[in-house]
From TrEMBL:
<protein>
    <recommendedName>
        <fullName>BTB domain-containing protein</fullName>
    </recommendedName>
</protein>
<dbReference type="InterPro" id="IPR011333">
    <property type="entry name" value="SKP1/BTB/POZ_sf"/>
</dbReference>
Length: 297
């Protein structure tokens, strides 16, 4: 067991002994600043608890917090004691989640709000399941609706893997409900795109007794196969890539043909419309999902 003392303030009447057997960190802090930071600390260091009695700057009292993360508590102490030059601009997602758990535990949401807003930043294109899961849980704990919406959107559009590992790592009912909703939404969007492809091919097949749309069907099938956009492929790649690939598809042959076939009287007036519907399906899928609403979970 190692024990280090960090002077968050030069003169403090409380030394927080944070951590368990593996590593303990001692943080010299000021009880007045902690009382101002949250109602939980105001009660803990008030007259009704032993921790708040006989406090002195000459002989700081040690307060054990064995269940808390030492580095997360150190960051929190630096923020609420206004040591802004020591506070990092960014945190790794796992570190942010540890901070968020303590913020929620000690009701520090308001006093930590500016730091959290800076740390809870999700980069566009984030594609690591565990990192996004950490951001999602942190946003849920902290009630950050904007970050929650962005994390859920990234999980649906950027992630291919199942979300099972996220469920296995949490006991939060709200988070489990969120993850189940994300799986339903991802399946819904994948089915929407698959149905649009099927409708295109089904239309061409049912109106091709004369063979006039063979080149349209062949060209479309080749494009979908070469770009791995057939229905089975859609579930094997991130939806953001699927939507981008659909957006880059060139127009198949014969999509400008109009009227009825004189040989078999087949209706060929709609290939262009059907093709546009396929293109629209990608736009609709992208626009329909902008992330989940935290208040709706």
């Amino acid at each position: 067991m190692t024990s280090n003392i960090v002077n968050v303030v030069d003169r403090g009447d409380v030394i927080l002994v944070v951590g368990g057997d593996d590593k303990i960190l001692k943080l010299r802090t000021d009880s007045h600043m902690r009382r101002a930071a949250s109602d939980a600390f105001a009660a803990l260091f008030g007259p009704d608890f032993a921790e708040g009695k006989h406090l002195s700057y000459e002989t700081a009292k040690e307060i054990p917090l064995p269940d808390d993360d030492p580095q997360a508590m150190k960051l929190i102490c630096q923020v609420i004691h206004l040591k802004h030059s020591l506070v990092p601009d960014q945190l790794e997602s796992n570190q942010l989640l540890r901070v968020a758990k303590l913020v929620d535990k000690y009701f520090l949401h308001e006093s930590m709000s500016l730091a959290i807003a800076k740390w809870l930043h999700i980069e566009d294109g984030s594609h690591r399941l565990n990192s996004l899961g950490n951001y999602l849980e942190a946003a849920t704990l902290l009630g950050q609706a904007s970050a929650f919406k962005k994390a859920t959107k990234a999980l649906v559009l950027n992630i291919v893997e199942p979300y099972d590992s996220l469920i296995n790592e949490t006991s939060s009912t709200k988070l489990i409900k969120t993850i189940c909703a994300l799986e339903r939404k991802r399946n819904e969007l994948q089915n929407h795109l698959s149905q649009a492809i099927y409708d295109n091919l089904s239309y061409a097949t049912s109106n091709n007794a004369c063979g006039c749309l063979t080149s349209y069907m062949g060209d479309l099938c080749r494009m979908l196969r070469n770009r791995k956009l057939e229905p089975a492929d859609i579930r094997k790649k991130p939806l953001c890539n699927v939507l981008a690939d659909f957006g880059g598809l060139p127009r198949p042959k014969d999509t400008t043909y109009r009227g009825k076939c004189s040989k078999w009287n087949c209706d060929h007036s709609l290939p262009a419309t059907q093709w546009q519907r396929l293109r629209d399906a990608t736009t609709i899928s992208n626009d329909l999902f902008d992330g989940l609403c935290l208040q709706g979970i």
